[in-house]
Structure formats: C-alpha cells, structure tokens
Amino acid sequence: MLTQSQLDLFRRKYREDLSAPALCGALARTDIRDLAFRPMQAAKLSGEFSVEVKTRGITFQQNSGRCWMFAVLNMLREKVAERLNLEEFKLSGNYMSFWDRLEKANNVLEMAIETATKPMLDRSVEYILSGFHDGGYWDMAADLVSKYGVVPESAMPETYQSTHTSAFMKLLNRKLRADVLELRALVCAGQDPEPRRTEMLSEIYKMECIAFGEPPATFDFSCRDRDGQLHVWHDLTPKQFYMEQIGIDLSQYITITNHPTSGLPMNCHYRFHYIGSMAGSWVRNLNLTQKELQDLCIRQLRDGECVWFGCDSGAHGDRKTGVWDPDSVNYSDLFGGVSLDMSKRDRLESHESYADHAMILVGVNLDADGNPDRWKIENSWGEEVGRKGYFVCSQKYFEEYVYEAIIHRKYLTDAQAALLDTDPMEIPAWYSDWM
C-alpha cells in the first residue's frame, strides 16, 4: 500500500529535477516519438551501402497485417521481373491472403475437433478460441505458394476489405468461435463432425468471396518488357505461372532465429504448430547466435539475394525518416533519464518485445574491417514514409531487435545444416512469439 510518506518523497524528487517541467511542457503538445527523435544521430546512418540488391518498387499493405506475405511476394516478384526483363512488377497479395484465411480457418476447425473432449479452460482450447489475425510465418507462405501458386496483381487486385482487414477478421473470428463450440458439442455427443465442418468452410469461402472477390482458377496475363516487346499468355493456372516464371523451391529456405531465452537453447532445431498454419504443417526453425544469424544474412545478400526477416518495428523507430536505431530514438532521456533498458532475453521472456513485422533486407554497409554498421530495408508501408519506402536500421538495432531471418540452406555451414537432420524440439504454439 502506498503511504503518504512515499507520496511526499515522490513529489519532492520530481520537483528537484529542474528539467522535468520543461519536458512536461514539451510532451503536452507533441508526439512522444517526435520528441524522442535525434535527427543528427539519425543522419549518421545515411549514405550508400557496400552490398546492395536491386529491387523494383515499394508495395503498400495499408491497414492489414500482411507484412510477412508482402515480404515473401516482394522477394518472388524480383524473379518474375528479372526473367521477363520488367522494370516493375507486383504479385497479388489479395490472392494469397484469401487462401491464407481459408487454410487458417480449416486449421482452427481441425484443432477444435482434436481437442473437443478437453475442458474449456485447457490451454490449447483457450489458444484456439483466441482467434487468428493476418500475421504469419515464412513456412506458412511457403505452404500456400506450393499449394495455390501465385498470380499477378492484375489477376486479383486489392479491394477495400483486403487493405482494411480488421472488421472482416473480427467477424470471421466470431463465426469461427461459434463453429468451434458447435463442433465440440457434436464430438461430445458422439456424432461425426466432418459434414458440418465442410459446411462451415463453405460458408467462410462465401464470406471471403464477397469481401475480397473469388480467386481465379485461370487467368490471362500480358506485359511489355523494357525493350518494348509484348508478352501474352492465356488460360494460365496460378501454379503454372509460379513454376514457369519463378520456379523457386521455397522448402529449401529455413527460418533462423535468435531467441536467447531460458526455454530454448542455442544451436537448437525446433518446431511448432501454429493456429495460422495449414492443418498438419509445422513452422520449423534453427535457433542460432546473433552473430551467426547476421553472418548468414550478409552471405545471402553478397550473393545478390534479399533476405526476409522479422523484427520489433515498434522499438526505437522513426516512421517519417525511415530510421530504426536506439541512439536516434531515445525515450530514456525524454523522461528524465529513467532507465528503460532490458536485455534481449528479458524483453522476449517478459513479452515486452517480439517480431511484430516482416520486411526484406536489401543491403548492408560493411566497414573497413568487414563488419556491418547499417542495413538497408525494403518495407511495405508505401512510398510516403522513410526514404521513398526504404528504411535503414543500425547495427545496434539489428543485434537487439531482429529476431529471425530466412536463409537458403546452401548458405548454412556444415554444422548448421547438420542440425536440420536432428529431431526437432517441439514447443507449444503459444510460446512461439517469445521463445
């Protein structure tokens, strides 16, 4: 219980800080993030990058949580643009997210049947009923591409609902919670839940078609390359388009994490089944040191290939200038020197920080000793922010707030590759954000 003597102490110490009233006045009429920004420090992160991968155009996920999907599609579109000699090209995020939601819904209903006899307060049942969102992992995207292929944006353009997803997702989760309860009742009554589950999925498919449009089974596609030559295709299937114009085996990429937590050892092969996964599919990872993750990213960039990665986008970032850097966005000094420091492990284990945003690394600057000092990022927040859509993060930010990256197996060391042949440690899905 707070005592009067404690309150008197707090009041006296506050009044002894002569800078506090000025800071209070500044905060009264200014955004905290703007006041925390240090432009002269951020300016040190400008300049060219010694290693850089050319990319073609900035995408805009708008008010949706599809960053992970846009990052994957932005990597794949480079293959199409290179193959067809195009200056600019976009793949349809609406198409992939349609199937993503349907697969997530199917997974939820299957998990509901599997756990139907467990009590409502069981952790796995609570997890299922917590619902899902637009977010996801690399392995989910790889599964979707393998099953459904991809289409150009012209074959399934964005709609208002696909770029403003919160209202639809709330309704979808409401329906799924009702469906989960119904399926549980059917199983507990000894009835076959499958016919009703199929009807439920048909209803969800209809909801999606109304909100986002029905995905094409076949489509026509034409484009004119940089030399002025016209290319035309008719009656392409999405999988055919993927195999002919991209053809990358996404299963050859592995998620490298740096989660230095008590529940997950370094040099560990682990997996989990996520509520957003396809039914029967797993998200697989290698947990390595930060230095190993960093070196693998550099190796892939040096080879001319961008890197999908996940980070905490809310930590020490300035959206206007496109800078992520603890020294350039400093909140501690703004509040009179109060320490806000936590270790990477403590931030993860206390749920203070986690990978909430995915983008692609397209460059890195190496100093005279070959060590990275800043990284170039292609974001999916449109061209109005950052440096025409591109962002930069410092090495300090990279070490503290980058948690995962997608690396092709060919860049792994022999020791790292050998970990993939070991039996993976399985963790509960609800641990995945912080372990």
Characterize the structure shown.
The chain has 435 residues and is an alpha+beta fold. The chain has a single domain, classed as Cathepsin B, Chain A (Alpha-Beta Complex). It has 16 helices and 14 strands. The strands form two sheets. Strands 1, 4, 5, 6, 7, 8, 9, 10, 11, 12, 13 and 14 form a twelve-stranded mixed β-sheet that branches. Helix 6 packs antiparallel against helix 11 and helix 10 packs antiparallel against helix 11 (194-212). The longest helix is centred in the middle third of the chain and has 23 residues, at 166-188. It starts with a helix and ends in a 9-residue tail after the last strand. The mean pLDDT is 94.
- H-E order: HHHHEHHHHHHHEEHEEEHEEEHEEEHEHE
Number of helices: 16
Radius of gyration computed on alpha carbons: 24 Å
Number-wise, the strands total 14
Provide the helix percentage: 40-55%
CATH superfamily: Cysteine proteinases
Uncertain spans: none
CATH class: Alpha Beta
Main beta sheet strand tally, sense and closure: 12 strands, mixed
Termini Cα gap: 35 Å
The appropriate CATH architecture is: Alpha-Beta Complex
What's the domain count? 1
Globally, the shape reads globular
CATH topology-level name: Cathepsin B, Chain A
Mean pLDDT: 94
- The secondary structure category is alpha+beta
Strand content: 15-25%
